[in-house]
Amino acid sequence: MSRLWLFLAGALGPFPIWVAIYLAARQNTFTLDSMFRILRVWRWITWIAGVVLWLLFLLPPHIRWQYGACVSTFSLGLSFPESWLKARVSPAPR
Fold first, then answer.
1. What average pLDDT values come out for the chain (94 residues) when binned by 10 residues?
2. Is the dihedral of CA 11, 29, 25, 94 positive or negative?
């Protein structure tokens, strides 16, 4: 059961973040450029944490592989709101 919760947290976790970014962008609470930078840094931090957790699975002390999978999935999921925000920050050339 805990494996299912880890998977759901990793897979569905970025979507509430996306909604929060959408609402903040709509209300002009923060600039889009600053939100894009923060989200990019956050995604890289989670990606590095995922790599570390995968390495800790392979090296002693062995931890469960689900932790690395959850964080890696979360980092991958953050790329969706990041690409959406990037499209809003820099519109396509005409």
1. 74 85 83 86 89 85 80 85 84 62
2. negative
